[in-house]
């Protein structure tokens, strides 16, 4: 008798069910037990695969998307990549409106995945007809049978994590999770996951990670959108200059802010100590854990789960480039020795 062929029908069947990995060396001096949900194991190398698939499949169920339809979004980041990947398999056209600030590498990556990319001027206001928001909206209106993913305001974003990330973490920890620490950008990951976990055990503490220069922490604490909080920062995917409708702030117990420099160094430290090659926001979440540890948030019985949203390969010209780190003023005499010297053989 022949053995059966064990193959996935297509790449999208690999979305979700990412591993939970114990953190060892980086957590050596911290109180508690620490585990990372490594979202780079998704086929598009980030947690955004989950929302791309969920939002597209809900639109299919509603009869909005049919073969040859168009999926539209405004992002040069992980979500764009995930939508492009899903569109290939499902036979949709994918249009991504991105800012002219996006690196040529990112634009080429999206084009390599079959997306039609509109590069829109970065210096115009959000309501200018040339802004990437307005271009996406216009294309959505003009393209019959299209959907606009609109991840910052789409409730299905949170639902994707409520239905997948939350149950996976509950099952992987055997219900023993005590704390969830996760970055908040659109807020879909943290609030969807948190809502599911708190339904299982309302005592689980949920801590959101925000950037200095973002409005989320203050909004959570005061209900006020304080524009004085807004200034430019480097970490992509974390924090925001508006209040995302995709976040359920009531599921989050507290926010903690992290700096660009410490998050970058901590991402590099995770790669070097755990052998997990992570993106910038994974550094941010681990940096937040270090700060929470200093504040005595955990005890020896704490089972802390954090989410590492994406893969380090997307940041080669940023946090993994010594030159970039130096240009940002992030390298100082205490930290230069952390990367290996290149040995040139003559
Ligand atoms: C790299 C990265 N980390 C974290 C996040 C935050 O996840 P969420 O948008 O679900 O809050 C994002 C989202 O844009 C991201 O791209």
Automatic annotation (TrEMBL):
<protein>
    <submittedName>
        <fullName>Cystathionine beta-synthase</fullName>
    </submittedName>
</protein>
<dbReference type="GO" id="GO:0044272">
    <property type="term" value="P:sulfur compound biosynthetic process"/>
</dbReference>
<dbReference type="GO" id="GO:0006534">
    <property type="term" value="P:cysteine metabolic process"/>
</dbReference>
<feature type="domain" description="Tryptophan synthase beta chain-like PALP">
    <location>
        <begin position="12"/>
        <end position="310"/>
    </location>
</feature>
<keyword id="KW-0663">Pyridoxal phosphate</keyword>
<dbReference type="InterPro" id="IPR001926">
    <property type="entry name" value="TrpB-like_PALP"/>
</dbReference>
<dbReference type="Pfam" id="PF00291">
    <property type="entry name" value="PALP"/>
</dbReference>
<comment type="similarity">
    <text>Belongs to the cysteine synthase/cystathionine beta-synthase family.</text>
</comment>
<dbReference type="InterPro" id="IPR050214">
    <property type="entry name" value="Cys_Synth/Cystath_Beta-Synth"/>
</dbReference>
<dbReference type="InterPro" id="IPR036052">
    <property type="entry name" value="TrpB-like_PALP_sf"/>
</dbReference>
<dbReference type="GO" id="GO:0009069">
    <property type="term" value="P:serine family amino acid metabolic process"/>
</dbReference>
